[in-house]
Write a sequence for this structure.
DNA sequence: CCGAGACGTTTCTCATTACCAAACGGATAC
DNA sequence: GTATCCGTTTGGTAATGAGAAACGTCTCGG
């Protein structure tokens, strides 16, 4: 725990961050941003280019789509994704809303895949986006089905408030998780984003990995109870099919 | 050009590659793969974890979805993507096939986005995937609309043969590019993958960026001329709408 | 039940290597 | 025309990453 991290590794990813923030930059701009010498920044940029994670466009360096390549390959390799992909396509077609697959990673929720349907909300969400586990319907559904000790670890890490409706009290959150377990699904309306409602069901393909399948839609639609039931029903059907596909190979 | 690249930067991305290949690994495995000391490998892994690009799961380290996060953000930032996203959704709905957006990067083609429709082929393609420019209908369409000097640079780089139907003769390729320019679109059948056909149209939102919008589908369907015309028509309609959207903001 | 080996991790020393300073050549602006 | 910015290259030096050795833990096999 006391092993220091390597300066050059931290720096090269700081350079990556600068290239992201500035949407491309040259040695001078990077040097200024990180308070290092121009020639040093140049070395990092050249090296990033050499390994294919940046491209040199006439002196200014930009991040390469190699990141997208690697990220998508990680996405496709995930077995839950493989099992869920087709069902998510189906959900987007049949509901017209925004079905989303989220998994847990390092104590947070990561959107692994989403596919907007014809009448889907335009949220700012995207594959790879991280959120805390306690702030979304997906995250809470995941949390509700995680091993107790890891739930404790997450709660002990503190419950950051992101909107005025975020549940920040550990006790109230635990009650919420219990009721999610009881219902078999979670419903959030105007919780994370005003005007958005989400229904989510758990996917726990094996004991280690917990995921969730969710559908986001406008609050006014989800407040209609029969429509809400319809979405929950569609999610549970998909969950069953995904389960089977996960177990018995592709 | 003679500046050496930084060893530690090259190494850390070699570690990333090992983590990808092995689907997660510990210091010992990485050390063996790269022929470095275990403690050295440990340092790289710890550092990768510290910057958030790897996660430590009880001694074995895995690549984090941070790559997906960064990759998707790069994708969404691309202005051609922003302009084309909705049209690609529409194409996937209305044709049921596999519409794909590709852009040029560093002398190659990169799939920036694709969205399978209901009856789409299952190719192994994915967002971020790189191909040579001369081996796909998308790539050739891009090449056909690039500035002459950059076309020369690509051709001088050599035309790798990937299938027995790859056009490897520069002269024949130039003729092909000319006819693509003339037709306003490219059609490939059983060229890159047996059983697949592709139609592609160019997107040249401004002089620097060249992209292509394509639809892939089974050869038997595309051999039907009226269907092929239909696809080309749909692509050109989309291309026009994308053009307008690109120029006049979102 | 115990010992051997593998592994992740830590600490330490030394040589490598990444850092900075200075300078070059080109482009741009005044 | 000159001054200043930039990307790039070079070389000397000191910080830093590399490797050896050892600790604690776990797993396996005797």
């Amino acid at each position: 725990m006391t092993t220091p991290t390597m300066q050059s590794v931290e720096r090269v990813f700081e350079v990556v961050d600068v290239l992201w923030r500035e949407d491309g930059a040259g040695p001078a701009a990077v040097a200024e941003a990180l308070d290092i010498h121009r020639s040093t920044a140049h070395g990092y940029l050249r090296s990033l280019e050499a390994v294919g994670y940046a491209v040199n466009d006439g002196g200014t360096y930009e991040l390469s789509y190699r990141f997208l390549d690697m990220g998508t390959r990680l996405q496709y390799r995930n077995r839950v994704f493989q099992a869920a992909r087709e069902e998510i396509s189906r959900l987007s077609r049949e509901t017209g809303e925004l079905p989303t697959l989220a998994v847990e990673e390092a104590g947070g929720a990561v959107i692994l895949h989403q596919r907007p349907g014809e009448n889907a909300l335009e949220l700012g969400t995207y594959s790879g986006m991280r959120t805390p586990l306690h702030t979304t319907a997906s995250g809470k559904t995941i949390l509700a089905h995680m091993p107790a000790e890891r739930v404790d670890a997450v709660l002990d890490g503190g419950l950051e408030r992101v909107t005025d409706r975020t549940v920040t009290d550990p006790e109230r959150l635990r009650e919420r998780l219990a009721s999610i377990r009881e219902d078999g699904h979670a419903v959030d309306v105007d919780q994370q984003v005003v005007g958005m409602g989400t229904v989510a069901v758990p996917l726990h393909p094996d004991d280690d990995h917990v995921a969730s399948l969710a559908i986001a839609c406008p609050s006014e639609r989800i407040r209609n109870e029969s429509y809400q039931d319809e979405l929950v029903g569609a999610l549970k059907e998909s969950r069953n099919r995904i389960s089977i596909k996960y177990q018995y190979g592709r």
The radius of gyration of chain A is 21 Å. Residues 6-8, 26-28, 38-39, 42, 46, 59-60 of chain A lie near DNA strand D (CB under 10 Å from a C1').
